[in-house]
Amino acid sequence: MKNSYDFMIIGSGIAGLSYALKVAEHGRVVIITKKQATESSTNYAQGGIASVMSSTDSFEAHLSDTLNVGAGLCRENIVRRIIEAGPECIQRLIDFGVKFTRQKDSDGFSLGREGGHTHKRVVHAADLTGREIERALLTSCREHKNITIRTNHIALDLITYKRDGISYCGGAFVYDPVNQQRLIIRASLTLLATGGAGQVYRYTTNPLIATGDGIAMAFRAGAQVANLEFVQFHPTTLSQIGKPPFLISEAVRGEGGILRTASGKAFMDDYHPMKDLAPRDIVARAIDSELKRSGHDTVYLDLQHLPADHIKIRFPNIYIRCLEAGIDITHDLIPVVPAAHYICGGVVADINGRTEIERLYVCGETACTGMHGANRLASNSLLEAVATAQFAASESIRDFKLGSAPEPLVLKFPHKALAKLPRERVMLSHNRRELKRLMWDYVGIVRTSYRLDEAASRIDPIRHSIDRYFFSHRLSEASIELRNMATVAWLIIESASMRKESRGLQYITDYPQLDDVNWKKDTILRKQGSDYVSTA
Ligand code: FAD
Ligand code: SIN
What we know:
- The protein has 14 helices and 20 strands.
- By secondary structure, it is an alpha+beta fold.
């Protein structure tokens, strides 16, 4: 059958592509991706992949740094397995053609350092690590006879059904906006690898595809989602009025960059013994606090004391992008502000990407495996994505060899064909703007109960307005994404409101202390009717 495969993968970032290359040795694979195949957060990753690669480093040190930053919520056994798989994952990427930067005059890798790491352990390809990984993995997928890549295909919902009390996933309902076609794509096994949700915030480093689709689809299908309050804000993005934030990698501070106020003060001394290389939540909050105190719009990153040639070689993309904005980073201070960057929570999965729904796997930023806890250590996400994709692929192959799952009895596309054309598009743009602003202003780096309550009461009418539009108009990519963004924003607000303490990335002024007695646990939500239940 044309639309029937052994393995269906939703998403063409590092998680989806790595998984594809392994399962394709055992069956027919389709990767669907909602834009061009390269369009993913992976493609924009700068700093690199954390892995123990030098004789002066150790798995124990990487483990300890990860647990320390994760603020009590990491699952130690999971962190250990992923970290120990690091060197093998790096080798696998190299085998697929990834060219990492080597140390000058040596066989070893050039290793970068980032916030929260006690050692240099970030393997990178200059400051375009993600682009290099995406290029190599996509080339290998395109050359593989068992892999079909369908671009401009957006998954709308998962095909899930119950048989004998067990929930199964058997593919996805998909929309092809170019041909305005609604498709039912069936598969024996389905992997959700749709990345993050940064677009729910007004300012984000994430590309436009990061609208939380996988989290929203899995939630609607009845899967558990966890820890969505832990949204990581990257401390340093180039501040340019009217332009989307451009990331200035933490590796820049790893090479010696210093954060300064407008008056020139190196303020990180006041906040943490690791100064500019303190964990990301601490640096982001420090900047937020300096901006609130001074009333200025930005702080500055200073590289003037570093050799100009070294900066240009180590950070060629950042150098060019800043130059285009009129800033020569070898001479000028870089104006920087924080922006939403990464969601530590996601669809609950075990180390092998297994969810509670049979034959549904999840990997990468969409998943919540217990690797990151309440805060992600820099450059651990590419590592988690590539390692868990390997584990999930092995487990999926085992499932596949067991034979097919029971078939669904009925398959009904979850949206009517003959609905109105998308008119009144202002409803989409208005609601999108309002939602992103609401999240930025009320559910940002520093939270208060008052603002969270206000956000909770405001998100409901926005969600209902988006749903009303969605079900009464012909499908469009914009309405599918906005519906998912509203679901994820609502879940972030609910999770943040539930957690009555400050831990990792959740800093709430009404509860400034860590409360291990009541809150050393995940915030787990599951759909119930049009609402949710907390299962933690
Ligand atoms: P992605 O790479 O985001 O891929 C998701 C894919 O799913 C995309 O192809 C998208 O189009 C597709 N998709 C989404 N929804 C749908 C749908 N409904 N239907 C069909 N397709 C869909 N992490 C590090 O460890 N080191 C770094 O140096 C680093 N730098 C970063 C820099 C930037 C600017 C950003 C934004 C993130 C960075 N991160 C870094 C985080 C890291 O890049 C991501 O967490 C990781 O790449 C996520 O990989 P993924 O495969 O899960 O998702
Ligand atoms: C960066 O290069 O600063 C991003 C690294 C990450 O998000 O892990």
